[in-house]
Amino acid sequence: MxxxxxxxxxxxxxxxxGRGCLAGPVTAAAIILPxxxxxxLLNDSKQLSETKRDILRPIIEEDALCYGVAHIFPEExxxxxxxxxxxxxxxxxxxxxxENLKFIIVDGNRFKxxxxxxxxxxxxxxxxxxxxxAASVLAKTYRDEYMAQLHDEFPMYNxxxxxxxxxxxxxxxxxxxxxxxxxxxxFRQLPEQLTLKL
Length: 198
Hints:
- Endonuclease that specifically degrades the RNA of RNA-DNA hybrids.
- By secondary structure, the chain is α/β, with parallel strands linked by helices.
- The chain is built from 6 helices and 5 strands, in the order E-E-H-E-H-H-E-E-H-H-H.
- The chain starts with 11 loop residues before the first strand and ends in a 21-residue tail after the last helix.
């Protein structure tokens, strides 16, 4: 059963999606839910079907006290690495919140201080706490929506289905067609490559 982290004040939950992808942005969401928010469907976005995520997104957006979503794109990921890009995306999502921030809970084990707001990293937090789970749903649905738009430009990679993750189909398309401007050049795109010849 998902729960709130602290009951004395509203916490910010934040999570990212797309960290392990070969193409597209890493996307983060940050959210503050009402103290007594409950939803029996809500869970870690990876445990939910696409249909359930799509049902939850407008409910979460309607009920949230505030939320923000931010993309960090491949050029920036290649410059600062995926961990720093993931944290930057979370910071940019938190920047959009209009409440007085008192505490941040982060999915995972790595984060950098945001201003002077205390925070806690929680392993598998998206399966434990409502606000992180809600952030995970927003990050995932916004990123999937963006990848579906890119699919129209480069349909041969089938990003509508694989969302930029390193599926066999995606890697075969990279072998056949090469890399696009949306691919992360610092990532090992094909298993047999130690370095990419660009």
